[in-house]
Design a protein that fits this description.
The structure is a homodimer.
Chain A lengths: L10 H14 L8 E2 L1 H7 L4 H13 L3 E4 L3 E4 L4 H25 L2 H20 L4 H18 L3 H21 L7 H16 L3 H24 L2
Chain A binds a DNA duplex through helix 3.
DNA sequence: GCGATGAATATTGTCGACAATATGAGATAT
DNA sequence: ATATCTCATATTGTCGACAATATTCATCGC
């Protein structure tokens, strides 16, 4: 008998998702104060539930809270973005290493198909960066999953991912290097399917460093 | 005038600290269910505040919560411990790299003093592992701080640290390799004071891998 | 005796109200 | 006019109660 735990969605869960999206997309401006009574009224919900949702957002570093002063949406900064890239480099590098050891042949095959599809998209729509951006996320996401390390997966896909998404939205970070990224993905996948952990980690770290340098250049133009 | 924000400790903060300590030290057994009414009564506090504290513990992966079923203290496992060591290797490796770039000369000097002190302690009390265990934490802690990357510092010193402490308590992990660890710390500090990021990261990762292998051996004995 | 069914009980999710603290406006003194 | 103090207002922290969901346990049918 399948013990299929019926997934119940609690009110706090929905609030958390909704507010997180609003913050990531800048609907609630970065740096602004969050008024509990007002937000609770807007969502037609009690303050208690709202506070729990805010607590989770705080754990994900999307809001900062000071006792008796309330919560503010985190303030984006160039320095913090660099910090995030450094953490990503470390964690995703390790993820790639583990993926080279732990991904199943089937998963690798599917990843190959995904990458082929990206290649065709790049040829067809010259520089339409949006799909490639989504594709970049998909690709990284699968490798992280392939590490089979649940801690790593949680840190990258739950914590860091949304913060990064917030920067992408609000700093208008569209990559002008989709074809280069595609090549780098290609080399990386080769390392993984050759089951070469050392090389996989090295290539992933280089890939993320390139990405960081690209962002740095972009932000210097202001 | 110094705008010294008066640090007020909220009730939830105290609860969080207290319960976290109880969980880490095994006072509340790993895997056991947490009854909100009972815990609230024990601490003489309302369920609302308690729930917020539990939420924070969940964010730190010390408890797991399922909707309408309640919270359980996380179940320790060999596999999870290995996962944690892998994450640590990635993050602390990056921390060492950054520390080699960002620590001040003064901080490096103080770290040297700390290490000298550890060396004397090892000579005096042959294998009294407790102090060395604390010393090991101090040493790593300072390097993480030296990275000057606040995200990294938060992940390691807030999230991972307590989980690791929980394993040390409950698996009775006392290291029998304090003098080897001392040597490794020594080489690592050399790399940092030579401002060699690459070498610092390499040595830190080897150090943590050794530590992991030591744990693996220890657990195989059961 | 064993498993299914349903009522009684307990636990979690959500809410509104009160207490403690911070914020802002207005009055007073320099 | 500026700065300080005081009081009124608003916001956060904490609490107890109700609603929704899970668990327990006795009963029933086989």
């Amino acid at each position: 008998m399948e013990k299929n735990d019926p997934i119940t969605i609690t009110l706090t869960d929905r609030l958390f998702d909704t507010i997180q999206r609003a913050i990531v997309e800048g609907e609630i401006p970065s740096g602004s104060k969050i008024s509990e009574p007002e937000l609770a009224r807007q969502h037609g919900v009690s303050r208690g539930s709202l506070r729990e949702a805010i607590g989770r957002l705080e754990a994900r570093k999307l809001v900062e809270r000071k006792p008796n002063l309330g919560a503010r949406v985190v303030t984006l900064s160039y320095e913090q973005l660099i910090e995030i890239y450094q953490v990503r480099e470390a964690l995703e590098g390790m993820a790639a290493r583990l993926a080279a050891q732990n991904m199943s042949d089937k998963e690798i095959e599917e990843l190959q198909l995904l990458l082929d599809q990206h290649g065709r998209q790049i040829e067809e729509q010259h520089g339409e960066a949006y799909f490639q951006k989504q594709g970049d996320l998909d690709f990284h996401y699968r490798i992280v999953q392939g590490s089979k390390n649940h801690h790593l997966i949680g840190l990258l896909c739950n914590d860091l991912y949304h913060l990064l998404r917030m920067y992408r939205y609000q700093f208008g970070m569209r990559s002008k290097r989709s074809s280069q990224a595609y090549d780098e993905h290609h080399y990386l996948l080769n390392a993984i399917s050759s089951r070469d952990p050392e090389m996989a980690e090295l290539l992933m770290r280089q890939h993320i460093r390139s990405s960081r340098r690209n962002v740095e250049r972009m932000l210097l133009e202001n």
